[in-house]
Structures are given as structure tokens and as C-alpha cells.
Structure to design on (401 residues):
């Protein structure tokens, strides 16, 4: 890596330059050996132009992290040194971002820092949860088991998320196709038919006038309307990524009829699974709750968990802290209480995570089975009304001839 620095010599003279080193720490150490007092040091960022223009193309998927975790666990079990593991996996990775990340981790580990510290420098690839688990594995001397835990945990989480997302692909495709067809009809077909109906001089039904008005609006102001939608979408997206927008959308997610129930169970499955995995790995309960809050993915549950961590740190039990929030089901609270009283909290959390994962799967299957007939009815009604608005006046005209 190339680092650009500004420094001061022993004589007080300013100095600028560049130095090649494994990482920033190694670069600083090399400059200090040259008797330079560093005032600033920055890594030169290099990479393809599209990575800065389209950053989402340079991401690492959860599936890649699952595969990586299993590979690391297998190599640790085979007694391969950590340095060789990350060097080998970096050479074999097809994902450029992951390959670069693993190369930097290799350099950092070679310079003497721990694996968890090296991974912590890449929060876009390795979550706070992941880094905390690896740190726990280092402290307990069970890194291979930790990476297996991580692979199993992420695999279940990936399967759950994928099923929920895949359930929306079919309705999204059908609705998009329907909208495209309707726009083509309103812009290209309806204007020609409306001119024919207008020339006949016959009284046009109200619903046909509405269709013609919509068609005329799209023909004359369609481009402007599209631009307004784009601008509105940008503002909505900026609101979404803001703290206030994220909180409002998170609240909306779990409050929607039918869909809200799915989201609630999905986030509860994530909470219980993360807590079970971290507690099983020996991470203290307060730290486990804090890390789970940072990766739960919903602002409402994140705030609840942060307040819960504070309450537990102050002396409350986990069940007592959770009972203050209506978003936490009484069944969950009672089960956690039983786990605390019997000393089997990890087992109870594992049972709860499996329960909520099954519930999410059942909810997704139910919603998918309902979406298809609802879409068919809605599309049938929409197309039927459009055809009736056009064909009924034509039929009346031909009948009167």
C-alpha cells in the first residue's frame, strides 16, 4: 500500500513524500525510524472508476461471508497458520472487494495485530457482531469453533432473508409488467381510440372520460410527471437513510397489517439467534445485547435492546428489562425468565430462535399463497375496467348505426 505523508525533521524542516508499506502502522514505524515527526499520513486510494461511481457494485454478499467462514474454520481445524489462511483465501477469491480485504487483513496480521482487530478495520464487510465473535474466539482459543458458529448462524440468517426477499420477486415482476402495459395502453392505444369516439359525437360514459383524461395527462405531462416521481423518490430515499426516516419506517414495518406480523417474527428470530450465538461463545450478556442491537436491522428493536443493555448493566435480569416493552411478546419474556431461573438461557434462546424461524417460514408461505390470487383478481379488475371503458362506447356506436 502507498501512503502519502507530511512530517517534520529533527531540525524543524517540513517534509512531504510517499512510502510503501503493508499497512498504516508499518508506514508510521518506518517513518519514525527515519527520525521524522509525522503530522499526517493518508493511504492512497486506488481502484476501478466504477467502484467510486457505483459503490454498491463493490460489495460483499452475505453468501460470500458464509462460504469464507466455513473455509476459515476448515483451515484452522487443519492447523494451517492464520497468516497462510487469509493469504490463500485472498488468492482464491473471485470477489475483488473481498480479495482486497483479505489481502489487507493478511498484511495487518503479519504486522502483529489480532485477526479481530484486522477485521474491525473493514466494517462494510465484517459486522460488529462478526468481529465480536472472532474476538471471543481468540480469547477462548477456539477460533475454528467460532468460525463454524458464525458460518451456521449466517447461513440460517441468509436462508431466512433470502426466502423473505424471494417471496416478493413474483409480485414485483407481475406489478411492474402490468404498469408497463397500462402505460403503453394509455400513451399509444387510448389516444387513437379516444379520437374515434370523439368524432362520433355520441355521449361518452363518465368512466370512459376518466380513462381519456388520464391518457391525455400522460401524453402531455408524462415526462414531467416521471421527473417529479424521480425527485420525490430521491427525497424519500434521503428521508429513509436519515435517523428520523429510519425510525418511522421501522415502526411502519412492524405495524402494517399481515406484513407487520412477518417483520416482527423476522426481527425476533434475528434477536434470539444472535443472542444465543454470542452467549454460547462466552461473550458477556451486556456486550451480547449491545452487539445484537447494532445488527438487528430495525430501529425500534435496536432502541429496545440498547435500553435493555443499560437496564441489565444496572442490575435487572434480561426478562425484567424486556418486559417493559410491548413489542416483545409475553411468550418470549416468560421463556427467557425460565431460562434465567434454570441456568439454561442459551438453550431457551436457541429454542426461541428455531420457533421464530419456523414462524417466519410459515408466514412467508401464507403470504405467497395469498398474493397470487389477490394479484390475479386485481389485474383482472384493472384490465376489465380499461377494456369496458373503451369497448362499451364503441359497441354503443356500432349498435346505433
Amino acid at each position: 500500500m502507498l501512503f502519502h505523508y507530511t512530517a517534520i525533521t529533527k531540525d524543524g524542516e517540513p517534509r512531504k513524500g510517499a512510502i510503501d508499506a503493508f499497512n498504516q502502522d508499518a508506514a508510521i514505524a518506518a517513518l519514525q525510524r527515519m527520525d521524522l515527526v509525522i503530522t499526517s499520513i493518508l493511504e492512497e486510494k486506488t481502484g476501478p472508476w466504477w467502484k467510486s461511481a457505483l459503490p454498491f457494485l463493490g460489495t460483499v454478499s452475505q453468501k460470500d461471508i458464509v462460504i469464507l467462514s466455513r473455509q476459515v474454520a476448515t483451515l484452522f481445524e487443519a492447523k494451517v497458520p492464520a497468516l497462510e489462511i487469509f493469504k490463500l483465501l485472498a488468492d482464491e477469491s473471485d470477489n475483488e472487494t473481498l480479495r482486497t480485504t483479505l489481502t489487507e487483513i493478511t498484511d495487518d496480521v503479519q504486522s502483529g495485530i489480532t485477526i479481530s482487530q484486522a477485521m474491525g478495520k473493514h466494517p462494510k464487510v465484517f459486522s460488529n457482531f462478526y468481529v465480536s465473535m472472532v474476538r471471543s474466539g481468540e480469547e477462548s482459543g477456539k477460533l475454528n469453533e467460532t468460525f463454524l458458529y458464525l458460518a451456521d448462524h449466517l447461513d440460517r440468517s441468509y436462508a431466512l432473508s433470502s426466502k423473505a426477499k424471494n417471496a416478493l420477486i413474483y409480485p414485483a415482476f407481475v406489478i411492474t409488467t402490468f404498469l408497463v402495459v397500462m402505460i403503453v395502453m394509455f400513451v399509444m392505444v387510448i389516444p387513437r381510440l379516444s379520437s374515434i369516439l370523439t368524432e362520433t359525437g355520441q355521449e361518452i360514459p363518465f368512466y370512459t372520460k376518466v380513462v381519456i383524461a388520464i391518457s391525455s395527462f400522460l401524453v402531455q405531462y408524462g415526462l414531467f410527471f416521471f421527473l417529479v416521481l424521480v425527485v420525490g423518490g430521491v427525497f424519500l430515499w434521503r428521508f429513509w437513510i436519515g435517523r428520523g426516516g429510519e425510525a418511522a419506517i421501522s415502526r411502519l414495518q412492524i405495524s402494517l397489517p399481515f406484513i407487520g406480523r412477518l417483520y416482527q417474527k423476522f426481527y425476533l428470530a434475528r434477536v434470539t439467534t444472535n443472542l444465543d450465538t454470542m452467549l454460547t461463545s462466552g461473550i458477556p450478556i451486556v456486550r451480547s445485547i449491545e452487539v445484537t442491537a447494532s445488527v438487528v436491522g430495525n430501529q425500534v428493536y435496536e432502541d429496545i435492546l440498547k435500553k435493555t443493555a443499560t437496564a441489565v448493566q444496572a442490575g435487572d435480569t434480561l426478562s425484567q428489562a424486556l418486559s417493559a416493552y410491548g413489542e416483545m411478546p409475553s411468550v418470549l419474556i416468560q421463556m427467557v425468565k425460565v431460562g434465567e431461573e434454570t441456568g439454561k438461557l442459551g438453550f431457551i434462546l436457541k429454542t426461541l430462535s428455531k420457533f421464530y424461524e419456523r414462524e417466519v417460514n410459515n408466514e412467508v408461505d401464507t403470504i405467497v399463497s395469498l398474493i397470487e390470487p389477490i394479484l390475479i383478481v386485481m389485474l383482472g379488475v384493472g384490465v376489465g375496467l380499461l377494456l369496458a371503458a373503451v369497448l362499451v362506447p364503441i359497441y354503443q356506436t356500432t349498435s346505433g348505426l
